[in-house]
Amino acid sequence: MAHFLIVEARFYTDxxxxxxxxxxxxxxxxxxxxxxxxxPGALEIPGxxxxxYRNPRAYDxxxxxxxxxRGETTHYDYxxxxxxxxxxxxxxxxxxxxxxxxxxxxxxDQAWARANRSEKNKGAGAARAAMALAAxxxxxGTQ
Length: 143
Known about the structure:
4 strands
């Protein structure tokens, strides 16, 4: 059994709830435990994960959940790119097992198609990715 930290960007609360429900179902189906923390938006997710990493409780894996919807300005590009880059940095150094469930979409319809548990269920996908990486870390003795 592994213990995961779910970091949720709550900017779009309804979508965040659906992504989290998918992630939680996937974790519980495998018998894993989790804790949830909320942050305002996608840019804050990597920082929250680093705080979790420095916490003595130590997590086996991390799940990033959020939605970034393109708007009328370039802000979307910065949020989407920088949050993805920071999550990748966390997977490389310090080597966290991160499942990236931040959805970068053009509109709410696309966001719902990805978040909805009866459609693409990207929350569960992010949880499965984190579980797979955590298992790989464990099998290689790099905990």
